[in-house]
Amino acid sequence: MIKLGDLSLNYYILFFGIIIIIASLILFFVLSLKYIFYKFLRKFMNEQKASIISYLIPILSGYYIYLGFYPPDSFYLNEFEEIVQEQNIPKVKVIYGNATYPTFHPDYCSAALLRLQPIEFNAILRKIKNNNYFFESSPTGSSALYAVLDKTETNENLYKYKASTQLDNKYFFIGFLPENKILFHKCEE
Predict the structure, then answer these.
(1) How far apart are CA 81 and CA 8, in angstroms?
(2) What are the phi and psi torsion angles at 98 (to 5°)?
(3) What pLDDT was estimated at residue 21?
(4) Does the pTM exceed 0.85?
(5) Domain residues of the chain, as ranges?
(6) Among 24-38, 111-125, 145-159, whose mean pLDDT is lowest?
(7) Taking Cα atoms as reference points, which of 69, 43, 68 lies closest to residue 54?
(8) CB contact burial 134-164 (16+ within 10 A = b; e otherwise)
(9) Alpha-carbon distance 180 to 80, whole Å?
(10) Alpha helix locations (H) across the chain?
(11) CA nearest 162: which of 144, 148, 176?
């Protein structure tokens, strides 16, 4: 039998077979909704308009599924604003971000590396250092954090200051790096 790493080829075939079955079921469900919606719309409008409008279901479904797996930069900026408790921080650039897809519980984690202007960077650093809720510590890991650390080659020894806190069911970590970069990590249970 052909070996690929520690797993045999049969496990890979089984895994991808399950993925194809799940994707087929999702596609069947979305197209069924489209058809039902089309039949409903046909009662109120002509065939062409009903057909065009009914295509919105698969398009919007695909768009929201895509956003669930690949959140836009605004998602990471909102998460960052929640951690530092400031709104509309000017000229923040997301260098790299990663988030886990929410589970049924619905817990998820997100992490990102940001670049700020020196004035905002220093103001947020002072604010976090003087905040009674944050305490100096290293981050606890998640797949989102490890993906950002691996992609950006961030080293534990580079932090100017690092702090974390836990409020309710949320865990926050913020690390201040050279070149006005901030690494944040948020987990919510």
Answers:
(1) 46
(2) -150, 145
(3) 93
(4) no
(5) 3-69, 73-188
(6) 145-159
(7) 43
(8) beeeebeebebbebbbeebebeeeebeebbb
(9) 15
(10) 9-42, 47-54, 56-69, 73-84, 118-130, 143-152
(11) 176
